[in-house]
Amino acid sequence: MVGTEETRLVVLRGNSASGKSSVAAGLRERFGRGLALVGQDNLRRVVLRERDRPGAANIGLIDLTARYALDAGYHVVVEGILYADHYGAMLTRLRADHRGPTHAYYLDVPFEETLIRHASKPQADEYGEAEMRSWYRERDLLPGGFETVIGAGSTLPGTVGRIMRDTGLAALPALDR
To answer: Is the pTM of this model over 0.70?
Structure first.
């Protein structure tokens, strides 16, 4: 078992440029200290510099990092594309092992909208439409039906507010760390 009955685990998934990192940052800003962000891109691309493939080392590192933070009393947001076939088993185990509430969200944004959003990102020149098309998976939901799907029409403040309320984070004090 991992975490406590008080810790919250939030999983944010969706395609590239669907808003996951912005939502995670918004949650951190609204909550304050005591909310750990476990970003797939950071651990996979920056820390390990590996490709996204089944059985890759980042899958275990994401799991280990989330578990460590939960055991240390942090609320945790795991965010990334997190393809269901690559990360689903790990996320299912993490959810089953977590003592507190776990909430999962899938940001469902059409491909054309992801292109528009990508164009406004600082790293827009690092990859383009061809790469994004190869990564895009329509409604790549985890098995078990426990993800809440949030559509492209939800604003950033609306999505952050909804997740804060759904998870109970809105009612909890920030930790003094």
So the answer is: yes
